[in-house]
Specification:
Distance between the termini of chain B: 11 Å
Number of helices of chain B: 10
CATH superfamily of the largest domain in chain B: P-loop containing nucleotide triphosphate hydrolases
Radius of gyration of chain B: 24 Å
Number of domains of chain A: 2
Largest sheet of chain B: 6 strands, mixed
Oligomer: heterodimer
CATH architecture of the largest domain in chain B: 3-Layer(aba) Sandwich
Largest interface: A-B, 29 and 34 residues
Order of helices and strands of chain A: HHHHHHHHHHHHHHHHHHHH
Shape of chain B: elongated
CATH topology of the largest domain in chain B: Rossmann fold
Strand order of the largest sheet of chain B: 6-7-8-3-9-10
Helix content of chain B: 25-40%
Helix content of chain A: over 70%
Number of helices of chain A: 20
Chain lengths: 476, 324
């Protein structure tokens, strides 16, 4: 028996079930054969309506856009299929005999992932093909093959994304009702994603759209990893019910945050130290990233900006200069910078990195971290271009408060990175909720114990010492 | 063979199973009795490697539930509390699916499906959707699923709860046949008559702990005391001058009925009967006072609950008994 056979047994059984369930078949058939006709009529009417007033629509973009939308609607059924397949089995108690077989967790997981994707995807691709037939019969030009490939790829990765997200939700829910409620956390972001992709389609920038495809693939990959990590028999048969237990959350958080300590000194020595020890690998990664992005920011500025300046017309440079001055005023840099402002700004930045990391398995958090450090590099590059020695700026303008601020940023970002990594790592014997609380408690220990005090010191230095040192350094 | 030692499981602060030590040999049946929520299902789930113990260990068919879960699951046939029936499949498709999952080849699957469907009287419904089956038929199908791969170990949760008497007898007979073919079987049941009929040993579990375990006779002896014998006279009779042999005590007189405790019935009952006849007692019948598992169970549970009120730290009777 091949490795795939057990996966296929699960898929085949579910497929048989689906083909006998009119609640799934009916919407799939309607969306496959009626929706393309409807979409075609709407598009045609829109073009006619606009042309009546002498306007033109981006007709060549309407077809790919319609393909995207037509492909997307049947895909939404995948969400229902996946939720039904996982939570429905849990709720009806049919999952236990299945779990009691020698099938491995990943056999069941991929068997169900496959069926979640398979039927809606077949419907979706059929709907797109049906639409293309309709369009070609009207003698409307079909999109380029590369755009077609892009749209088919997008449709496939959307399906995988939705099903893998649905599985993550399913593992955490014990009833279809709860899972359906949680499904809005999938539908809303995917709808926003679709809007962005539609905008890219109308913009006609293929390269950016491929980047969007790559982004969705990465996200789907992470969701599959997290689903696999938490798709364990123990959780699926767990006793937890879908009630938001604030008391349990607070107690668990407090247990992890305080530990078994009774004094601040012991808390630092034992609890914070342990949280810190867990971060040595993420800190290493963050330091390497910091050096690379800082250097990249500096290099990009000193090489690219002079080229751009040479190309730009003098009037344009004047406008840029004016706008820069306006924008600096807008973000408050033109005003007096006080220590409380710097402190709250930096704390907010650390919080934003955490939040961005939490919703994206650390990916967006990393992006913000990289942007921050590359901006510092770029800033030094600008000063270099203006004729100041960057080493002086670094020594007098950056280092005095940077020796506190940069480690704080690295530590908090490393703790954020660890959250994402641990979320996609199997955690035997603990629920996802417990894992998240533990990781947040670790982040908070580092934030409260180390990062905030460091940022406080950094803000004082940056407000009261750095300006004097910088003036001295730049003038001498 | 099933062996557990100090098997425990907690969910957060809730102790579902606490220090269960058991040993069930091949060809033996253990009945696990207890209230709803006592820890029977959690124990069975640990023995199926569905849940991992938080303390202690368990071996099923020689495989460790923690280290060799796949082998454990391949060795076990489980009838779960909820039967786990896919209602849109036919009975034949349902068994075929599980046959595939247990890696039976096509011929073996067909032969097992035919045998089981025929044995449980479901042959005519083999192509019927399971959704159209009655509750009893579904239970039989679930049992057939548990047996599809002829597992050496069977864990059956309420195997006859929804069945009519004829079907229940079929299941009892099949369990008896499996026992004689050296299967190791654990039955979780609320049906005390069934446990009495089928089990070689019985364990009563309460709040995750095994309170008492042993054969039915041992349980009766331990919980209800020595067996009583009742002598029915044709008229009220006073046992003056009756010479009771050593080991026999008169337990009470009620009208024309006399009750005796006999320590060694095989040896002392003939002597007692002889003495009664010698004393001209108008004996009509001489018989053992029936003691049922129900009496044992209710007494154990009552003691456990009372014990908790008095001293919640002491185990009610015992926690660790070897069933060998």
């Amino acid at each position: 028996m091949s490795w795939f056979s057990p996966v296929w047994f699960v898929t085949k059984r579910e497929l048989r079930d689906q083909l006998r369930d009119w609640r799934i078949l009916f919407p799939l058939i309607v969306l496959t054969f009626l929706f393309p006709i409807l979409m075609n009529e709407v598009a045609r009417s829109a073009v006619e309506f606009v042309s009546r007033f002498g306007g033109t629509l981006l007709v060549d973009r309407l077809v790919p856009f319609s393909m995207l939308i037509i492909g997307f609607f049947p895909i939404t059924i995948s969400l229902v299929v996946a939720l039904e397949s996982f939570v429905g089995e849990k709720e009806r108690g049919t999952i236990e005999p299945l779990l009691a077989t020698p099938l491995k967790d990943w056999h069941i997981y991929f068997g169900k992932l496959l069926i979640g994707v398979l039927t809606p995807l077949v419907a979706s691709l059929s709907a797109i093909l049906f639409y293309l037939i309709i369009v070609s019969r009207q003698r409307i030009e079909l999109p380029e093959p590369s755009v077609m490939v892009q749209l088919f790829t997008l449709t496939i990765v959307h399906a995988i994304l939705m099903v893998s997200a649905a599985i993550v939700i399913s593992v955490q829910s014990t009833s279809v009702r709860a899972a359906n409620l949680l499904a809005s956390f999938i539908v809303v972001p995917v709808a926003i994603l679709m809007q962005g992709e539609s905008a890219l389609l109308f913009w006609g920038n293929d390269q950016v759209l491929w980047l969007a495809v790559a982004g969705v693939v990465i996200l789907a990959g992470l969701l599959i990893r997290i689903g696999l990590a938490h798709f364990q028999r123990e959780y699926l048969l767990g006793r937890e019910i879908d009630v938001l237990n604030f008391r349990w959350i607070l107690e668990t958080f407090s247990k992890y945050f305080v530990g078994e300590t009774n004094s601040l000194w012991k808390w630092y020595r034992v609890v914070v130290y342990r949280a810190l020890v867990k971060l040595w690998v993420p800190v290493g990664i963050m330091v390497i990233l910091a050096v690379i992005t800082f250097w990249a920011g500096f290099q990009w500025t000193v090489t690219t900006i002079p080229e751009l300046m040479d190309l730009a017309a003098p009037e344009l440079l004047e406008t840029i200069s004016d706008r820069l001055s306006e924008s600096t005023n807008l973000i408050g840099l033109g005003q007096d910078i006080s220590a409380p402002f710097l402190f709250t700004h930096n704390v907010r930045a650390v919080g934003i990195i955490l939040l961005a990391g939490l919703v994206s398995f650390s990916v967006l958090g990393l992006v913000i971290y990289i942007l921050n450090l590359s901006i510092i590099g770029a800033l030094l590059g600008v000063f270099n271009l203006l004729g100041f020695a960057p080493i002086n700026l670094a020594l007098f303008g950056l280092l005095p408060h940077g020796i506190f601020e940069i480690p704080a940023l690295i530590l908090s970002s490393a703790a954020m990175l660890r959250i994402g990594v641990m979320l996609v790592t199997p955690q035997v014997g603990r629920s996802l909720g417990e894992v998240v609380i533990d990781l947040l408690a670790d982040w908070t220990k580092i934030a409260v114990g180390i990062v905030i005090p460091l940022l406080f010191i950094a803000a004082l230095i940056e407000a009261y010492i750095t300006p004097a040192l910088l003036t001295y350094g730049l003038l001498n | 063979m099933i062996e557990t030692h100090d098997l425990s499981k907690h969910f957060g602060s809730f102790q579902a199973v606490d220090g269960v030590t058991l040993s069930v040999k091949p060809g033996k049946i253990l009945a696990l009795l207890g209230q709803n929520g006592a820890g029977k299902t959690t124990t069975v789930r640990m023995l199926t490697a569905l849940l991992f113990p938080t303390r202690g260990w368990a071996k099923v068919n020689g495989f460790d539930v923690f280290k060799q879960p796949a082998q454990v699951r391949a060795s076990v046939g489980v009838l779960t509390e909820q039967h786990g029936i896919y209602v849109r499949m036919t009975g034949g498709e349902y068994l075929n699916f599980f046959g595939e999952v247990y890696q039976l080849d096509s011929a073996a699957r067909k032969s097992r499906i035919d045998y089981l469907m025929d044995y449980f009287g479901l042959s005519e419904a083999i192509n019927q959707r399971v959704g159209e089956y009655s509750k009893g038929m579904r239970q039989k199908l679930a049992l057939a699923r548990a047996l599809i791969h002829e597992p050496p170990v069977l864990l059956l949760d309420e195997p006859t709860s929804a069945m009519d008497p004829e079907s229940a007898k079929l299941v009892h007979d099949e369990i008896g046949r499996l026992k004689s073919s050296q299967r190791t079987i654990i039955i979780c049941t609320h049906n005390l008559v069934e446990a009495e009929q089928l089990a070689d040993s019985i364990a009563i579990i309460y709040r995750g702990k095994i309170l008492i375990t042993g054969s039915l006779d041992e349980l009766k002896q331990q919980v209800l005391g020595p067996i009583e014998y009742e002598v029915l006279m044709s008229k009220p009779w006073q046992p003056q001058g009756l010479n009771l042999p050593k080991g026999v005590t008169l337990n009470g007189i009620k009208g024309s009925r006399l009750r005796f405790h006999v320590e060694r019935p095989q040896e002392l009952n003939p002597i007692l009967l002889h003495q009664l006849t010698k004393s001209n007692a108008p004996v009509v019948t001489f018989q053992e006072v029936p003691q049922s598992l129900e009496q044992v169970y209710l007494k154990v549970m009552a003691d456990a609950q009372a014990g908790e009120v008095i001293n919640t730290h002491e185990p009610a009777i015992t926690q660790e008994v070897d069933l060998l």
